[in-house]
Amino acid sequence: MRYIIYNTKLVKFARQNRKDSPEPEIKMWNQILKNRSTGYKFTRQKPIQDFIADFYCSRLRLAIEIDGDTHYLTDKKQCYDAKRTKVLNNLGIKVIRYTNLDVTKNIEGVYEDLIVQIRIREKELGLTPPNLPLSGEENKHD
After folding, report:
1. What is the pTM of this model?
2. Cα(136)–Cα(142) distance, integer angstroms
3. Which helix (H) or strand (E) holds 57?
4. How confident is the model over 63-71, as a mean pLDDT?
5. Closest Cα partner for 68 from 99, 32, 109?
6. Measured between alpha carbons, how far is residue 46 from residues 57, 75, 85, 102, 116 in Å?
7. Domain 10-125 has CATH 3.40.960.10
8. What are the sequence ranges of the domains in the chain?
9. φ and ψ at 81, to 5 degrees?
């Protein structure tokens, strides 16, 4: 696994982002990612080059972005997101996006889709999937 360079000036901003996270990001963290119900360790507000990923798993080289309405309403924001995704992809990082609405209204669907995306990523990287609890045994997502 190679080290990913990041702009050290973003560390303070990332720390502040963790403190001021919007509700959908908090929900995603608390109900899915924090307790490792995916089988993998994710970090919040991870600086990568000149960007900050909402969530990042270094083992999977997987970034998750939770996008609000502004990501879809302005061309400028869409261009920025496309540029960021391209840079991350060029580093070997896959980017998955969910909307605020998906997370707040359909967290179980987000979890199920994320597991599918993780399985695809494991195959791409040749990783063995970790053992996960059976649905409903250990982790509740509602």
Report:
1. 0.82
2. 11
3. strand 51-57
4. 80
5. 99
6. 9, 25, 14, 22, 23
7. yes
8. 10-125
9. -60, -40
